[in-house]
Write a sequence for this structure.
């Protein structure tokens, strides 16, 4: 775990493969795929790139552009008791181990990017949402190079492409403010890009108004 902590602090993220026990992971995938209330979330934020103005990276979107994201989200899945139990038993302890004792309230989402060439997330920062975060991929297939849906991270002048492989956990240090985005999942991909994601506020921080307005998320301590 010491190496994971160093990676988290230096690189801004940690990748842990085969994270959950096989039976636990299988049940998580089953719960996710059984979700019947996925709703389409289409976000357009006209002023967001002014807030995120990045002078030292000319490839980051200009302040005149709109931030756009399109994905699907399920309140039913993210509030499932077993999903909450898995977070508390497996994910929270390892995030606390790498980030420290400053973790406050969490915001969780069950998100799907369908294999339709239309779901994506433009380049952005998440430090305004929380100082730490996680992604647990809930896919079945070993992801192929050209299926799309990769998490792209700008790090040290390079672009790192992270595949949404089955049972892969990503721990993210949002306090380092690294730009990242998600490519559209191609129509020929054998499955959708499924995952549970979470963001964490610093301890004792008040709940943001934006968190209170979302009906597709779960908030926990």
């Amino acid at each position: 775990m010491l190496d994971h902590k160093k990676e988290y602090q230096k690189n801004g993220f940690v990748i842990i493969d085969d994270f959950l026990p096989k039976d636990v992971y299988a049940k998580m995938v089953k719960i996710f795929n059984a979700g019947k209330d996925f709703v389409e979330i289409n976000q357009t934020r006209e002023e967001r790139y002014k807030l995120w103005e990045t002078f030292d990276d000319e490839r980051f979107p200009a302040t005149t552009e709109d931030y756009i994201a399109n994905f699907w989200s399920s309140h039913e899945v993210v509030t499932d008791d077993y999903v909450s139990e898995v977070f508390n038993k497996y994910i929270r302890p390892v995030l606390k181990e790498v980030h420290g004792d400053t973790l406050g309230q969490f915001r969780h989402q069950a998100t799907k990017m369908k294999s339709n060439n239309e779901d994506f997330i433009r380049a952005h920062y998440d430090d305004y949402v929380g100082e730490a975060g996680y992604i647990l991929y809930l896919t079945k297939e070993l992801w192929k190079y050209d299926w799309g849906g990769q998490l792209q991270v700008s790090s040290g002048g390079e672009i790192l492409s992270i595949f949404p492989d089955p049972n892969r956990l990503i721990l993210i240090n949002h306090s380092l403010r690294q730009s990242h985005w998600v490519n559209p999942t191609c129509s020929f991909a054998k499955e959708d890009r499924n995952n549970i994601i979470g963001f964490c506020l610093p301890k004792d921080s008040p709940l943001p108004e934006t968190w209170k307005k979302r009906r597709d998320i779960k908030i926990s301590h």
Summary: The CA atoms of residues 13 and 138 lie 19 Å apart.
